[in-house]
UniProtKB/TrEMBL annotation:
Transmembrane segments: none annotated. The keyword Magnesium applies. This is Acetate kinase. It comes from Ideonella alba. It catalyses: acetate + ATP = acetyl phosphate + ADP.
Length: 369
């Protein structure tokens, strides 16, 4: 039987998984939906079925690798998870309320249902452990830094996948590279020598770009204003994480496809704001890098939305960015594709991400060590 690792990305209502052999693509990927209403017994039954299916597919499961959004100061490399680690990670839940509780509920369910199997945690924040001090610091009272108030960065599994994939396609991958992970959550990462040197998400997964339902950066004065009007912390959290972004601005949907298909002016406004924010932050990271050698797009929007890629490329024309319209519109997100014109000073790539592959590979390394 093929040795395999099950990579799990437990979200608020679904559990996405992939069964990975040591090398190459997933043997099997899938999604279990409707978990929020299902209860613990149903979850445990679903996991037992999953385990049974793995065996049916000729795979011997060695471990389960979990994507965990926040690793805080302490978890900067993949590690085996037990009840004590889980408890420490629970303390970070307020910093990533859309993700961390569900990620950890997923781990707890697997620990209970499959106690014989190693559970491995892989942290979105870990890829950004290389951020320099000026990227990590918050420009406020330095006493707050002692409480762990600093910038971390997220989407690390996705960025690691791109950082390891791009060199197979581009001789520029070791240079000044801008990675754009544009999905439900969205962020940018600046790479130099394949390492993260700047990123748009910070202390929480709220900073930076406008997202599906999250605001991204906004003037902290807005929060003070709302607090003085009597808004509670919970109400602010709901606004910033769930009722902002594409959904909040359009009043229609968080889904880029729905907005592209809509004739409502508010849908166009939401897309324009999303695009503007991307361009603004891309310009900032290009300045940090001192110019660009390559840009790579990933995530549901980055991989599929040719119009957005074209607008960003047009906005960065002053840096010598030239898109090739035909390869751009032909890129489907099913393979790595170059989309720059022959005379572009900056290479442009679409790289379909595979966070599960990165998590599985970390689990194999840990088991082999
Ligand atoms: N063909 C497409 N054109 C434009 N946007 C798309 C397309 N396919 C998916 N998307 C967008 O990608 C986003 C979801 O990205 P994804 O990376 O799958 O999210 P997550 O993994 O964070 O749930 C949604 O806004 C969706 O509309
Ligand atoms: C960190 C984050 O925003 O993740 P996602 O894009 O999966 O929501
Ligand atoms: Mg995602």
């Amino acid at each position: 039987m093929t040795e395999a690792v099950l990579a799990v990305n437990a979200g608020s209502s679904s559990l996405k998984f992939g069964l990975y052999p040591r090398q190459g693509a997933a043997l099997w990927t899938g999604q279990i939906e409707g978990l929020e209403a299902a209860g613990e017994a149903a979850f445990s039954a679903a996991l037992q079925r999953l385990l049974h299916d793995c065996t049916q597919r000729g795979a011997r499961l060695l471990a389960v690798a979990h994507r965990i959004v926040h690793g805080g100061e302490a978890f900067i490399a993949p590690c085996r998870l037990d009840a004590a680690a889980l408890q420490r990670l629970r303390a970070l839940a307020p910093l990533a309320p859309l993700h961390q509780p569900h990620n950890l509920d997923g781990v707890a369910a697997f620990l209970q249902a499959l106690p014989q199997l190693p559970q491995v945690g892989c942290f979105d924040t870990a890829f950004h452990a290389t951020l320099p001090a000026v990227e990590r610091a918050l420009p406020t009272d330095r006493a707050l830094a002692a409480q762990g108030l600093r910038r971390y960065g997220f989407h690390g599994l996705s960025y690691q996948y791109l950082a390891q994939t791009l060199p197979q396609h581009s001789a520029r991958a070791g240079g000044r590279v801008l990675l754009a992970h544009l999905g439900n959550g969205a962020s940018l990462c600046a790479l130099r020598g394949g390492r993260s040197v700047a990123t748009t998400m910070g202390f929480s997964a709220l900073e930076g770009l406008m997202m599906g339902t999250r605001s991204g950066s906004l003037d902290p004065g807005v929060l003070l204003h709302l607090l003085r009007q009597g808004w509670s912390a919970d109400a602010l959290e709901d606004l910033l994480y769930r009722r902002s972004g594409l959904k909040g601005v359009s009043g229609l949907s968080a889904d880029m496809r729905t907005l592209r298909a809509s004739t409502e002016p508010a849908a166009a406004e939401a897309i324009a704001l999303f695009t503007h924010r991307c361009l603004r932050e891309a310009g900032a990271l290009a300045a940090v890098l001192g110019g660009l050698d390559a840009i790579a797009f990933t995530g549901g929007i980055g991989e599929h939305d040719a119009a957005l890629r074209a607008e960003l490329a047009a906005g960065l024309a002053h840096l010598g960015v030239r898109l090739d319209p035909s390869t751009n519109s032909a890129a489907r997100g099913d393979r790595v594709a170059a989309i720059h014109a022959a005379d572009s000073a900056v290479e442009l790539w679409v790289v379909p991400t595979d966070e599960g592959r990165v998590a599985a590979q970390a689990a194999f390394s840990l088991l082999d060590a």
